[in-house]
Amino acid sequence: MGKENDESTRQRREIDPSTPQGGSQAGPTRIAGRPPSGQGKAPDGGGQGPTVINPPPGAPAHTTISRPPQPDRPGEAAEAFQPVTGWLVAVAGPGRGKARAIFEGRNAVGRDPGQRIPLDFNDTEISREKHFFITYERKKRSFYISIGEKENLVYLDGDVVLDSKVLNEGCEIEVGKTKLRFVPLCGPGFSWDEA
What we know:
The protein has no helices and 14 strands. It folds into two domains: about 10-70, no CATH class; about 85-185, Tumour Suppressor Smad4 (Sandwich). The protein is an all-beta fold. The protein has strands spanning about 15, 30, 65, 85-90, 100-105, 105-110, 115-120, 130-135, 140-145, 155, 160, 165, 170-175, 180-185. Helix content is about 0%, strand content about 30%. The two termini are about 50 Å apart. A six-stranded antiparallel beta sheet has the order 5-4-14-13-10-11, with no helix packed on it. A five-stranded mixed beta sheet has the order 7-6-8-9-12, with no helix packed on it. Strands 1-3-2 form a three-stranded mixed beta sheet, with no helix packed on it.
């Protein structure tokens, strides 16, 4: 305990030049890049002033410890809230048994991993991008399917989709060699706005 080379406690330390070397004075330790007490916010944008800690055993007085800047508010750097509103579950084809989440708003569906709903099941008959769209409209708590920007077709319960159609629980979507069952989470009985 107290070893400066211990992986869990190793930090870059810089000696404060204003402190006499070898002196027995014990002073506060402050975070690098943060102002001394009473000088407001740090220039690096982190925190509300310095964090004073006792120096580790064997460290010179007035040791400055460099730490990465911290966000001012918890969760500030967190991703925007994008809740799942339902799922597409592959019931036939190469991806059988796999599910993909549907999010609020308009979701592009294709086999490319960068699509909002990626059907990356090795079904080459699915267009790479925007084969079709699934939309969740939160005001009416409704789901819709619409054609994409490619020439490949998509079917809803056996009928070709040529314009926007309402999706109901249990609907079957056929695209390429893949059949998908629509499973909603949001609807008349649940909404993230009320959760």
